[in-house]
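User: Working on a comparison across species. This one is histidine kinase from Flavobacterium hungaricum. Can you predict its structure so I can line it up against the others?
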Amino acid sequence: MKIKDIVNRDIVTLTNCDQEPIHIPGKIQPHGFLIGLTQDWKIDFCTQNISSFVNVLHTQALGKTFEAVFGSKAQKQIFDYINEDKIQDAFPLEIDLNGKLFQISIHKSYGIYVLEAEPQFDKEKLADVYTQTIQFVTQMNNTKSLKDLCALVAQGTREITGYDRVMIYRFDEQYNGEVFAENCREDLEPFLGLHYPHTDIPVQARELYIKNQLRLIVDINYEPVPIFTVDDKEGKNLDLSLSILRSTSPIHVEYLKNMGVGATLTISLIHHDRLWGLIACHHYSEKNISPEIRLAAKLQGQFITSQIDIRQSNDEYINARKALDAFEHLTALELPLVEESLETIIQMPQLLQICNAAGVSIVFRDKIYKSGLAPSDEQITALIDSIDKEKINHLIATNNITDHFPLEKCSNFAGIIYHSLGSSDFIIWSRPETISEINWGGDPEKSIIKDSTGLHPRNSFNIWKQIVKGQSSDWKQFEINTAAQYAHALHNNLMMIMLSEEEEKYRHQSEVLRETNLELENINWISTHDLQEPLRKIQMITSKMMSDLKEEPDNPFSGSLERVSKSASRMRGLLEDILKYTRIKNTKDSLEKTDLNLILDATLDEMKEVIAESNAVIEYEKLPEVHAIGFLMRQLFSNVIQNSLKYASPERNPVIKITASQEPVIIKDLFHVYCHWIRFSDNGIGFEQQYAESIFKVFTRLHTQQQYSGSGVGLALCKKIMQAVGGTIHAEGKLGEGTAITIYFPCDPEDSLA
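Assistant: Here's the predicted structure for histidine kinase from Flavobacterium hungaricum:
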């Protein structure tokens, strides 16, 4: 049987360490040994140092069954442990292997059961660990902020584990780290508040910290132990992502040596499936801890992660509540709907408090309203021009304006929240520059050192100060949200102001129009009445003169007087039609159920002499009841029939047919609702259909006065009557054949259902 080691011998340097496959090093730390079992209990992987712990060589163990090497009793114990789902359980399996006691941690890696054995630790006083944990929980409840809690965890972890230094290490969005809390020996230089670049912990290392939340290095000067396997296929390897004994990257080892560290314990702090931070424990000599202590330390980390949301939410809730109170105060203001209200709004301190801004600017109708430490008018104009060029019409929230827009002379502001309030209106909250000092644990720009032997991680961790300028404090999410809510409310308020102004303008115009119409009606009434009197006198005088001249038939003045009398008569008729037209107003509130049969009978009775003189025949059928006004319907019927008689064909006697819908029908082109229709059809001279609309206009005539007499108001009067009752009127004509006038009355909903 041929065996081989699986040591990863790829050359790793600082130029390619971000691609280092640290999950498959093929090596472990020497304070324990590792074997890998197949599903049929064969030892497929084994570390070279197994003989240092049990009387078996790795060459003797590989390829054999676990039972053959360690006995059936040990195999049964492991079998029961696996089948009771205790893999990766809090406590390892305590077992006797070939006469020696071990504590074994077991996990599964791609079909291989990985057994990691460490010699049995001396029994810890679990009562002491339990007491410390209870005391910690009691003290934890007395802390108010997340920082206080982390400081307590650092203290508690150091008391339980005995490491020289315990740090709570927190990542930012870019995974730069900050020592957020610390507890260390009094003689050590504190690292509290120091920052470390994201390159110190590369991506693949952060991924492993998520998978395996506890990591030990017992002796930084250890010699890695290779893992061997049966050489039965190419590319054979073993994923050690979940391993306790996994050997560490040589780059990381050198980094820790440069810091003077002798042993480490690292516990992952996972929050919302993201690596929030680490509990980093350093010791300046060799150090190992028992599984019980490891569990207690891991529990400390879980205390933090379980409280992150609560503590952060509590801090944010207090601030968010203040912002919400300010928002509610602003939106509860009862201000008049006029532009001048912006003068009041801009001076309200709550306008700054809703997002903890230092200044605020509102641009409305090219006028700028400002409060607090707001940018100058020139800066606001330049900022808006830059935003317009970028065609941004949504929220902008930044703590470094120059990262987004190349603005000059913006030293008095660095951060903004910008919201559009319409096509050319805006609100901008601003914050000034906050000059901050960041202490790094060494120059982050010099994380790689080059010497005669090659590239190395930095060996200087002296405090390096960085001065950050051009940035404001970060906008919190609740501040951005509250600002957005108020921008929306302000936009609605501005819309209401504009609508109110338009309403006032239309109300004023309507009032002017009403007064003008009243004046016109009065003028029209007075004028028509004043004109009636001289016309009556003209007719009386001409009638007397014509009577006196009857005995002189050849008198040349007789024809002139007759023409004068007829002109005066036509003028009186025109004035009467104008009066009728102007008296018709919106009378929908006066509509009542009207029997059109009674209206038609009364109309025909009034016109019987005219109908007889014209030799006209009127044919009609039963008409419906509609909602209308009786006297207006008589006027309409009379005008339509007179129109048919007036424009009768000289070649035939006039015939007028009056038909109607007996039940409500839908006329889609008109109402899209149920309605009744009445149609007056005649056999007169007709007209071309292109004039179907114009014949309803006042004073519109298709023929000369000499051909057909009339004022040109009759059909216009009919249209106005139908508009007054909520209906409409249409005309269809064929030249030389006749005309059809149809009127439509909308029904009540009850009639529609019938």
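For your comparison, note: DSSP finds 18 helices and 31 strands in the chain.

User: Helpful, thanks.
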